[in-house]
Amino acid sequence: MMKTEFLKYGLSILLLGYISGCDNYEQKIIEKNIYVDRQSLSLFIGQTVQLTASPTDGTYQYQWSSEDASVATVTSNGLVEVISEGFTNIVVSSGDLFTKVPLTAVVRVPLEDVSVSESFLELIPGGKKTILVTYIPDNANDIPEYLWSSENPDIASVNIAGEITGVDEGVTTIVYRIGDIVKEVMVDVAYTRPFKGPHILSAAVPYELPAANFDLGGEGYAFHDQDANNHTGNDNYRRNNGDNQSTPVEIEGDGGNNVGYTNPGEWLLYTVEVIDEGEYLVEAQVAVPGTGSFHIEVDGINVTGTIDVPNTNGWGNYTWVSTPEDKLTLILTEGRHKIKYYFEGGHNFRSLKFTKK
User: Fold this and answer.
1) Can you say how many angstroms the Cα of residue 123 is from the centroid of all Cα atoms in its chain?
2) Closest to 258 measured CA to CA, from 241, 244, 237
3) Distance, C-alpha 107 to centroid of its chain
4) Is 25 helix (H, G, I), strand (E, B) or coil?
5) Residue 309's closest CA among 286, 331, 336?
6) Which residue from 78, 185, 208, 224 has the highest number of Cβ atoms inside 10 Å of its Cβ?
7) Share above pLDDT 90 across residues of the chain, in percent, rounded to a whole number
8) What is the distance between the alpha carbons of residues 354 and 352, in angstroms, rounded to a whole number?
């Protein structure tokens, strides 16, 4: 008898739990709402846009309205048309449910042009510069998509923010396109730059290039000096002309008279621009109480071989070395070239002279 009562009691508890569980499930509230495919609108006068309300399974019959029909109207199927400047809410409702979509209407001001902060840019490899773009007119609000690109990413690259990065030596063009508007930025990437340049070679007149006017760029790029100490104690010429990287090079005289205290293996680099291509005789103005020698490289290639410097019987007794003429005749194409003066034997060096043949 006790066993039977216990079984009835247990079944009663299970049944009560089942009924309670069913009650909880049936009492769960399903939230009702209307959803629109756009949360807000910002449109120009005259524009139209189709709004869609959901659910779309026929559960609700939707009514569309505008709180200010002078700003924007809406059809019975949700097509919105902007009438005038201002603000309103587009309302979609069904029974006591409704959702509002805020709408701001503005006068369309088309983009007419743009200006860029730089049209020509000089960078070293690894150097960066961001180009700023200004809209014309400055209150333009109808802005097309834009694109930055590089004509040669191996020389300079550009990202979506207009930041240009120098990659390797050379010249290329960075292009900014927005709608039908195109702007270009010429980018010159180089490790060195002409000092007191440009140094232009042409058929018009011989060009004399002072030895002290080697490139800007510093040790290992514009020059190589084996001794970091300046034995003249004078670097005024370069510093006075904006170069703080060339202290090791011994330039004699505040006016850049000559380069002295040279040793074998040292060199100086000069960037020149050739207007008239062809053959140029290059002469070196040098002095040494003994013997010295040099060679000249064009764009990294030794084109002269060893050239002897004669004994001038004094560090201040200068002479022009112009022979052998066949070795000292350079064939230069139009455009930019890097001329390296390489000391094979120490001597004082005053200038180079280029004469079109």
Assistant:
1) 9
2) 237
3) 35
4) helix
5) 286
6) 185
7) 87
8) 7
